Amino acid sequence: MNLKGILAIAGHPGLFKLVSQMKGGLVVESLTDGRRMPAYTTQRVLSLDEISIYTEAEEVRLSVVFDSIIDKEGGKPAIDPKNASIDELRAYLAEILPTYDRERVYASDIKKLFGWYNDLASKGLALKEETSAEETGKATPDDADSDAAKPAKKPTAKKEAAPKKSAPKASAPTSKGKVAATMTRKAGKA
């Protein structure tokens, strides 16, 4: 799942999409109601793309966890963190990520995880990202067939760039020993 540009802002409910940057922070759009607002540099802004979940061996990116939920739920909302008990949430997370660290992943973290996933799923953004052969670095047999089916590109001759004109040279000193006024004149001075 591609979480690039999806943000969580401390003190504000829901998730936000990054719209643009400004001098003192970011302009974000709420995924809940579509309203835009500034997120200043003094606020704690988390990019979901950079969040990981602790496991017994290593940390697992949130996008990988969301992909597992998508596999299980088919892109539909998962268990509701507001109505489920913490034991139900822990059991559901154990089905998705069996090796998660039960000591370092708190109940509030699990509630946020399922809340964020459900927000994305309700907006239709819970789509599993297909990894292409270019990203994994592995060639597939289909890639070789598709290259053979494409006509070869004709090499094009590159045009040589025209020589650059040099800047005009300063004129020789005048009889008073000063460089011509056109080269030394500053704005507003004679």
Widest sheet, order of strands: 4-3-2-1-5
**H/E series:** EEEEEEEHHHHHH
Strand segment tally? 7
Report Rg.
29 Å
Largest sheet report? 5 strands, antiparallel
Distance between the termini: 65 Å
Would you mind describing this structure in some detail?
- Strand 3 and strand 4 form a beta hairpin.
- The chain is an alpha+beta fold and 190 residues long.
- The protein has helices spanning 62-73, 86-96, 107-122, 133-136, 141-149, 181-184; strands spanning 6-9, 15-22, 25-30, 36-40, 45-47, 52-54, 59-61.
- The N and C termini lie far apart (65 Å).
- Helices cover 29% and strands 17% of the residues.
- Among the domains are: 1-50, SH3 type barrels, CATH 2.30.30.730; 51-131, Arc Repressor Mutant, subunit A (Orthogonal Bundle), CATH 1.10.10.
- The longest helix has 16 residues, at 107-122.
- Residues 132-155 and 175-187 have low confidence and may be disordered.
- The strands form two sheets. Strands 4-3-2-1-5 form a five-stranded antiparallel sheet. It has a two-stranded antiparallel ribbon with strand order 6-7.
Features:
five-stranded antiparallel β-sheet; alpha+beta; Arc Repressor Mutant, subunit A; SH3 type barrels; 190 residues
Helix-strand layout with pairing:
Blueprint: E1 6-9, E2 15-22, E3 25-30, E4 36-40, E5 45-47, E6 52-54, E7 59-61, H1 62-73, H2 86-96, H3 107-122, H4 133-136, H5 141-149, H6 181-184
Antiparallel strand pairs: 1-2, 1-5, 2-3, 3-4, 6-7
Helix pairs in contact: 2-3
Concise structural overview:
With 190 residues, this protein is an alpha+beta fold.
